[in-house]
Write the structure tokens for this entry.
Amino acid sequence: MEYNVSKDNDTEKEIEITVARSELEKLIDEETDKLRGEIKLDGFRKGRVPRALVRRKYQDSLKVRAMDSLVKKSYLALLEEKQWQPASQAELLKIEEGDAIRFRLRFEVIPEFEVDNYVNIEIFKEPPVPDDFLLEQGMNVLREQHAEIKEVDRPAVIDDFVTLDIEIQKNGKTEKEKNRKVKIGDRTLPDELNRALVGIKKSDKKQVKLNDVQYKLSIRKIEEKNLPQVDDDFAKNLKMSSVKELQEKLLENIKKQEENRIEEELKESLSEVLLERIRFKTPGALIQKEYEKMLKEYELPDSESNKERFWHIAEKRVRFNLILSKIAKKENLRVVESEVMDFVSKMGIKLNNQNRSEVIDYLGNILNREKTIDFLYKHAKINEKSRIISPKEVANDTRPVRH
């Protein structure tokens, strides 16, 4: 096998491969023998059809199969010789037959890059938020979750919920939406419409013109949210004996959530440092695959605006995963199948003969990624930032002033 490189950069390769004609003939013979064992012709038992007859009768399909095999074998041999890791399927650009077989392939590879300076990365940890602030925030969320929404017969005010039909006329086109529910003041509508809804009543109709857009509003109902009082009755409804027990349990849970949040932020800081330190060209095929995965995740169409939004994020994700893979290999970090199966059992994932291998590989990659991130986090140098004290804390600070 000989080859000639016409394009060779960090990620993109275009190569013409030349193979002796005899190699194709050998593969045709192999495909003929395979087919002999599969077919049955009149007058012959299965597997006993003469080779010459099989080759003559199926010569076109045998040649196609042999050529496909020749291209694949040559491609894999080239990857092994060059120690290239493919990032895309090879595209067959052309093929020529003569005394030798010549074909041109185009494909992408994962570039060579070094990983170093990934131990003892300095990152900065936000100091913990005071318990009383966490508790106040958590209690507010809890009250919101158990709030009562009820219809009212009065003019609407800020924070009320308004259910309405809305008709939007713009550039000669009309869009209609029925039973849309909005909260006055939460910016799901333009500010002018929020202001127009204040003071409106059930069954009212109103028109608002904003630049070249005409809005027609028809009010169906107005509702208010009533937050519950935090007392022993509220606590008992949540299976707690008292407000004190509720506060203790809530604070315990919130502090765990806050610790997890801070840890995730630190790990995100680690990723940003690594992405800044370790730079290389990322294969477009891998970015495209990650971009398509993001669109599917968010149920969005492929468009120029979405590409502008997500392509850079997809590139960073791919590059970070390649960096993690390289570090994992260098540090001999790997997840064994028993760890994957423990995770499968813990999550209650059902495996069958059809999906077993695919699911184990997929989860193994995820767990290996997490193991590598945990390794980096464990070996990072974490410093605490000074926290900015709020005016409320200053006002409540009764410690003596030191001179």
Remarks:
- The radius of gyration is 33 Å.
- The domain at 2-108 is CATH 3.30.70.1050 (Alpha-Beta Plaits).
